[in-house]
Amino acid sequence: MEYTSTNPYNGNIIAKHHGHTDEEIKSALEASQAAYRSWRKVAIPERAKLMRRAGEVLRENAATYAEMITQEMGKPISESKSEVIKCALACDYYAEHTEEFLRDEVIKTDASTSFVKHEPIGTILAVMPWNFPFWQVFRFAAPTLMAGNVGILKHASNVIGCAKLIEEVFSKAGFPSGVFQNLIFNHEQTEDIIAHDVIKAVTLTGSEGAGAAIAALAGKYLKKSLMELGGSNAFIIWKDADLDQVVETAVNARMMNSGQSCIAAKRFIIVEDIYEEFVSKFTE
Hints:
This protein has about 280 residues and is of the alpha/beta class. The chain is built from ten helices and eleven strands. Strands 7-6-5-8-9 form a five-stranded parallel β-sheet, sandwiched between helices. Strands 1-2 form a two-stranded antiparallel sheet. It has a two-stranded antiparallel sheet with strand order 3-4. The N and C termini lie far apart (about 45 Å).
């Protein structure tokens, strides 16, 4: 199956990408399992060196990565550059703090000694959205890889160029082959992938419909799952509000990330007394 990356601003075709065949997916899953067996044994300080290097790769290539984000997703280039740098900061953060986060925690029980121990579980499948094509992936990948797991990315079909560059980041940083892979597949192939013994958990950021579908498959095959689903925030304006300030805040909130943010205000609730004045200022 062929996928097309299209510039949403002018409709120009950026690139065409070929989906992975069932055989290629099988090989990738096997490679993922092989990588996990060795990666889980790598000491956290050694993982941290690679993750810090991933942050450096992001900074060194920020202009190139930002250009791809803007071409495929459509946000202003300044916001795309900020997104790439935010990803680098996430790499730095988890490189610095993972050892602390995963340290054994002694707890009180009626036993002589009890403690909580954190262990990696294997290959995690991430189904990610297009609105923050780099950030949504790195907020999953950085902690997942630092914890000793390995990752497989199924990105949105309109940002496959970004997905390929993200895979390149980990490769350039020196991560072992198979620790992070980008797979291009369609909905019909999804169930077989989630059902595969190699996949131990699945995470999704996206719509309620997509989340329900993936969560149902995760439940069917007894796989751990984590869903972050879209929302619609209410923007409530009372009659004693400073309307000039409110309008500035409202416009910024509604138009952040080119209007493609699940935390942006989607609904305005305005007391009747100031409705006409607010609308007049908002539409100026």
